[in-house]
Amino acid sequence: MSLKVDEVLGHVSEVLTESEKKRGVLIHAFQQIQVEHNYLPAEELVKLSKNLDIPLSVVYSTATFYKQFYFTPRGRKIVRVCTGTACHVRGASKVMVKLEDEFKIKEGETTEDLAMTLETVGCIGCCGLAPVATVNEDIIGEIDNKSLQGIIENIKEDDTVKAGTDDE
Ligand code: FES
Question: β-strands 116-121, 77-82: how paired?
Fold first, then answer.
């Protein structure tokens, strides 16, 4: 089945330029693909290009323009350590080093088993709780050695549970 941009947009397409139409439809499609796969697999982008009749080069240039889209698999847990000023002063770099050492990855990388992706983030507005990190949607504040160990174990346990489930 082939979907064309004007068919997808309906009446809205009458007031948009060609470029606005393509970008709008593509961004929506990227979001859906990323929800499903956690990133944008190349084969999905090729399919999208064919279905919408948009050149693959336009599909890629649109996707790469936005920081929110990823082109490699992401971890089941996305850990973001805040490196804003308050968190920096209160030990964010120690948190990063511990996570990097524990999972043998660097900032921006994902563990081989896809258990975790480690990133940094600017101030997330909880400076009073510094140092702060997020694990998926959860915010964890006042991180100390004990809570950091809890974060690490939680990520590892989750992976163990998943591995156990896969064996059944
Ligand atoms: S600096 Fe980390 S939450 Fe503000």
Answer: parallel
Ligand 1 pocket check for 132: Cβ under 6 Å: yes
Tokens of 46: 């090729």
Residue 73 alpha carbon to ligand 1 centre in Å: 27
Task: Quickly count: other Cβ atoms within 10 Å of residue 62's Cβ.
Answer: 20
- Residue 123 CA to ligand 1 center (angstroms) comes to 4
Range of 36's domain? 5-65
Q: Say whether both 42 and 102 belong to one domain.
A: no
**Rounded distance from Cα 90 to ligand 1 centre (Å):** 10
**pLDDT lower than 50: segments of the chain:** 166-168
Q: State if pTM tops 0.90.
A: no
